[in-house]
Automatic annotation (TrEMBL):
Pfam families: Mu-transpos_C. Residues 509-554 are annotated as: Disordered. Coiled coil: none annotated. Residues 169-373 form the Integrase catalytic domain. This is DDE-type integrase/transposase/recombinase. It comes from Candidatus Rhodoblastus alkanivorans. The lineage of its organism: Bacteria, Pseudomonadati, Pseudomonadota, Alphaproteobacteria, Hyphomicrobiales. InterPro entries: Integrase_cat-core (IPR001584), RNaseH-like_sf (IPR012337), RNaseH_sf (IPR036397), Transposase-like_Mu_C (IPR015378).
Amino acid sequence: MSDDERVFDDDEKQRAWLEGCRREEAISRLLERHGDTRLSIGDVDEVAWELGVSRATLYRLITAYRAKRTVSSVEPRSRGRRKNAFVLDRKREKLISQAIREIYLKPERPTMTYLIEQVRAKCGRAELPAPDRRTIKARVDRIDKRVAALKRKDSKGAKATKAVPGQYVASRPLEVVQIDHTEVDLFLVDETTREAMGVRPWVTLAIDVFTRMVVGFHLSMDKPSRVSIGLCMLNAVYDKSAWLKENAIDARWPVAGLPEALHADNGADFRSKAFSWACREEGIKLIWRPVGAPYYGGHIERLIGTIMGRVHFYPGTTFSNSTARQDNDSARFSAMTFREFECALGWEIAGRYNQEIHSALLRPPIAVWDEHEASTTLRMPKDRMTFWVSFLPDAYRKLRPDGIWIHDLPYWSNALSAEVGRHAGDLLIKYDPRDVSRIFVQHPSSGHFIEARARNLGFPAISLREWRLARKALRQKGRGERDNDQLMRTALAQRQIVADAIAKTAAARKTSPRPQIAVDDFDSGSMTGIDSRIPSRLELLDRQPNVKAKPPDG
């Protein structure tokens, strides 16, 4: 709206529009009758009388209509003050402008109420009439919103005023895969006790930018790490038929293969050397988002939002925020175990998301994948075992005669028998947190990874987290079974025994005389190299100081 326009309400707008239509019809007829010839004063006066305006006003309307040929160009203007017209005196305008600049546009982000208080205080000191609240707010509203947000260090406001027209575009399947983590808005229950767990799970998701297919996911009770990314990549690259069958998920999930590029944020897990090495080893290019620009990962962010929106229908949901949660006790209503939720999440991805019409594609993602799969050269890892272990967490352990100890468990492989007692250095160990019944050991001679099983062959294929929780529960059970009172009485009794023994020994040493050396105490036995004979009385007297030996009688 230009500065010379006035403010209309809805009724005024309707009346102005109808009057503009009447004027447009009358003026267009006038111009058609005369064509390129000059307008006669009589015809102008006749049309002016018809429209109820003066001759000068009609000439002005004719000029405006010839320039734009629109109804709005001849609409009547509303009466009253023009929009954005300020009528304060120069002193108060200057005072308000100075207060906005020195008080409001600061990183502390003072409120509008505080600004109004300060302006009125300044006006009072200057003996000027205090301006109305709306007057001050109108001056603030005239400031460019982005300029105000930057000066007030308002990142949210600055983000809202920044244009982001670009988007990540791919031309073929698996050209670019975006990956990210999020904490699930759901509480789960323990597998055994069905009691609510105090922490929420994390999910890592990967999506193909071209087809919008979810290529893989990984659910974990641990916080995001390169382990989460690696296990998500394992799920994304290999065929998922066995996993779907194991979890009784009756849905197709055909996507598989190495991506050409992996697009991720700047988290430490994505920047780790081990993860970068594993990707580079398989020819996967790593692309990181610009810092502070989450909109560059829009595809994965929208996927996370969609999946979390479905999670909010499950029992135990925390919803997306406290406002939506209200007074709902999420932990009390939780009912799903980790494995049940993982299965439900698999159904959600393979059975719903990949099958529903995508708003950007106007087609289901799985249909786009099926269409381009035949014409796409899918790459698979050169060596399954090498790729498998490259994303797994590692550790270094020594080879002992009883095996390799890690996670407080001994592991053994017959392939390591020849190295016992011969290899002094540490061995590189790779382990799968989902299954602690086995580890992968880099053979010191060949450099290849071999599988080592838990020495107890009946050890179940449980996760590292389950194993640690089981040991923690056993320790707690042991603490509950021991008699702390008995242990305390034992410690006090032992302490008293020691104290009594010390006191008795000290008293005995004080009362007993110092032992005197007697001649008969010498051992008469002979020893090699030592004069062990009994000394004569004269020799004994010579050894005592200040005593002269008397000559023998006779």
